[in-house]
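Deliverable D4.2, example record:
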Amino acid sequence: MAEPRVAPMPNRAETGGGVPSAAVMGTYARQNLVFARGQGSWLYTEEGDSYLDFASGVAVNALGHAHPRLVAALTDQAGKLWHTSNLYRVAGQEALAERLVEVTFADKVFFCNSGAEACEGAIKTARRYHFVNGAPERWRIITFEGAFHGRTLATIAAGGNPKYLEGFGEPAGGFDQVPFGNLEAVESMICDETAAIMIEPVQGEGGVRSAPDAFLQSLRALCDAHGLLLIMDEVQSGVGRTGKLFAHEWAGVSPDIMAIAKGIGGGFPVGAFLATAEAAKGMTPGTHGSTFGGNPLATAVGAAVLDAVLEPGFLETVTLRANRLSQGLAQLKDEFPGVVLEVRGKGLLAGVKLAPPVADAVKAVIGEKMLTVGAGENVMRVLPPLNVSDAEISEGLTRIRRAFATLSSKS
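Output generated by the structure prediction step:
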């Protein structure tokens, strides 16, 4: 009998700083960087090179890398219990849900693993609400141009980006897009089939565009007037990223449903959608589920993140650091008018709209041993950990300045 074919294990040269492995599906245009460890706001390659991380895993590493509290929570739980499924009660899940209810508008929480799942669950919750109210025809959701709600078939349809929709057949139905910030367009789109309005308070992927407080307040009023549910996608803007626990708090409004992920896990896959008791009344046994969602490992880390972010003075410090970053980026705009067109954002979700291609800017910043993230509208996102230091903000601005000087010299 012939021996079974076993693929040889790739060596370090094939998976490290050399040629990327062909075994990984090519759905990402990855930077040719491999990191071996991280500490706080810094990442280190296998060769020992250090990079200042102002990408934070795309707003995921809320407390930076290897935060002692998160490491302790994960390792302690790992030695006890990893997974039982949602066939049984999960003590840590109940505790984290109660904590989230205590500090938000919500009465109910469903745990999942990602932002896309959280948004998908929020969509289902809104549609199910009208169904149990005897109005199954109310299933359409108004969304906004430039939105990004995830990569599932429903969430790419909700976002409406042609690039993400291409090649996947007819887009999932039930989404009506209007220009971001255009209240008249929202009003004109409301019809007898409208169930909800879904919005990111700050569009991250769409170019770090902040919805004005007055606009969010008007959306709340429209929903109340027409019997609609207001869904906030706070996957990127939530868990302290803007200086409030959630970005919608700046406008003094509350949603009916909210999707969260990214920062709540601090790097561990955790997502959730939260809702008022009224909005969630249709989510009864059998209407939704998740095998891994809210397992003991995930909720132990999520609880540790939430405890850290809610410590007295933490969010105030985020605002101080954000102001320092914003002022520094504004100075770079004055210094490099041929490179920087606009500084955007809220809190430590900052964006720099550029004249040269954003890919060139991200590459130039990498050349200065620093990480940032591209976004729509030719914007570079600057997303340091929430516990970044003043000294690291200053160092980051220095490195961005050198990168912009390089770009300026080439223009």
